Amino acid sequence: MAGHSKWANIKRQKARVDAKKGQVFARISRAIIVAARQGLPDPEANFQLRSAIEKAKAAGIPNDNIERAIAKGSGQLGADGDQWEDIRYEGYGPGGVAILIEAMTDNRNRTAADLRAAFSKNDGNLGETGCVGWMFDQKGILTISDPLDEEVFLEALVESGAETYELIQEEDEIFAEVCVEVTQLDTVAQALKTQGYTIQEAELRWLAANTVTIEDADRARKLLRLMDTLDELDDVQTVTANFELPEPLLAQVNR
Hints:
By secondary structure, the chain is α+β, with helices and mostly antiparallel strands. It folds into 3 domains: 15-83, Integrase, N-terminal zinc-binding domain (Arc Repressor Mutant, subunit A), CATH 1.10.10.200; 85-134 and 211-253, YebC, transcriptional regulation domain (Alpha-Beta Plaits, 2-Layer Sandwich); 136-208, Alpha-Beta Plaits, CATH 3.30.70. It has helices at 6-14, 21-38, 47-58, 63-73, 108-121, 150-160, 185-194, 217-231, 247-253, and strands at residues 85-92, 98-105, 125-126, 136-145, 164-170, 173-180, 198-208, 212-213, 236-241, 243-244. Helix 2 packs antiparallel against helix 3 (47-58) and helix 6 (150-160) crosses helix 7 (185-194). The two termini are 30 Å apart.
């Protein structure tokens, strides 16, 4: 099954590097706070928390910051963790492209205003809840480093209960994205680890049931500008959309 997330693939090909380290730290710290609040503060017993901690360490966040975020979420440092909530927003980009946004905020009015401004400045509009959500399904995605023998890898996936996979090559690196049911993410991850596979990342991702191919360079630029603008907002955790760009067009608009 190709295209576990067209926007995720486009972001990789764009090689966009987020230099705003403080923004990255804040975003991941909020994810740790909410994960600790929604489940046990023990990463061994809380897969969402464990995944957030692994992202934090990969981003270079100090252990003290990680422990402080867990303490906030579990209520050990007061009610700070209770101020944050997960909200999903939906809207349309140029040409009616469907866009789904996951945000983590302590102020709904601020977040909605920021999103509305981002859409309006980039030929899109923020819609009502449910306007495009039906076009997406949430899945668990495991990124596996260098799966080597594909036939052996496929057997391991079948045994572990995975649904589909996609092999991706970037320069000299080959990795696989494995798609699983949300409730099976931890189970499949542990099964593949047991068989010796290295998991780079485990995350929940919204996947579009159908995608729209953009052929016009001007529309492509507007869409990429909107997606980048949304992605850079402090309260936004993830952004996905149901469009894809042919590689020649992507190379053209990135000049």
